[in-house]
Amino acid sequence: MATLGELFVEGVRRLAQAENRNARLDAQVLLEHATGMERSVCYAYPEREVTAEQEQHFLALLERRLQGEPVAYLVGHKEFYGLDFLIDKRVLIPRPETELLVEAALEVIRRKLSAGQVPIIADVGTGSGIIPVTLAVEEPRLPYLYASDISADALEVARLNCQRHRVAQRIRLLHGDLLASLPERVDVLTANLPYIGNNEIDMLTADVFDYEPHLALFSGPHGLDLLHRLLIAAQQLAILKEKAVVLLEIGYQQRAALEQFLHEVWPQATVTFTKDYAGWDRLLLLQT
Ligand SMILES: C[S@@+](CC[C@H](N)C(=O)[O-])C[C@H]1O[C@@H](n2cnc3c(N)ncnc32)[C@H](O)[C@@H]1O
Question: Which of 16, 94, 162, 179 is the most exposed place for a label (fewest CB within 10 A)?
């Protein structure tokens, strides 16, 4: 019978050999999932024996990880902004940089609430629902928010996450292309839409390209098609209320192209960018 410690060491060894840069963390997360034991137990009692089924489960997960399947899909969940979200192959795996967008959106929302407004909010391309669910949990004064996606499969996952975090009554899920199904004008529009260009496919690692939904990744030759379409639709459909704010996550090399585009199509808007921790402009904030 193997022990927790032995399985952990074996997992780290095989992952490191395969040049996995998160070998220790991945092995730990898979071990917790396979045995149902918390991290503290795994560390404190490495000599504890596991059952044959737990060992088989761990080794099977390890094998899949070695083939490239992302940890979040293997264990079925991922943390984002301190909350645990259900994640499967129907949705993009939440990325830490999207926390920047949530933080900025909360700041805007709280400013509006402090001024006595109750802002109407919509998140477009909501995927697993991390953005609206986090906003609803963090800001209980918001009566409701809209969350839309073109993928009915993704919306099923978002629905589960709304229930998991007890905000299902406050999040209105909409199925449709970009803003098409939005029933009213909004004060705050958030979106982390696909922004990878077809010209960047070669730069993607296999665990992204082979496993994550392509509908959640790609957006035309330079990754800008959906962002352009959303900005044009927001303007043409007059979907934004007075003094509305649009917050968009963008690709790390897209600032100049978006600045130029907005200068041409929306010259009266005020546009600012925020950098991520690596120093790239990753968040576009537009005020009408
Ligand atoms: C990059 S993922 C982001 C998911 C989630 N917002 C997050 O931050 O993890 C983009 C999402 O946009 C959706 N999407 C793609 N094209 C769309 C469109 N034309 N209209 C609405 N949603 C779209 C995809 O289905 C996917 O769920």
Answer: 16
Angle between helices 98-114 and 130-138 (to 10 degrees): 40
**Full-model pTM:** 0.95
Asked if residue 241 is part of any domain, the answer here is: yes
58 and 195 assigned to the same domain: no
DSSP one-letter code for 251: -
Q: Give the chain's domain count.
A: 2
Give φ, ψ of 171 to 5 degrees. -115, 125
* Per-residue pLDDT tens digits for 181-215: 999 999 999 999 999 999 899 899 888 999 999 99
53 located within any domain: yes
Q: What is the CA(191)–ligand 1 centre distance, in A?
A: 8
The pick from 86, 87, 102, 151 for probing ligand 1's pocket by mutation, whose C-beta has the most ligand atoms within 8 angstroms, reads: 151
Cβ neighbours around 102 below 10 Å, total: 23
Q: Are 40 and 28 in contact (CB under 8 A)?
A: no
Residues 6+ apart with CB under 8 A from 180: none
Which domain covers residue 51, as residue numbers? Answer: 4-67
User: How far away, in angstroms, is 50 Cα from ligand 1 center?
Assistant: 40
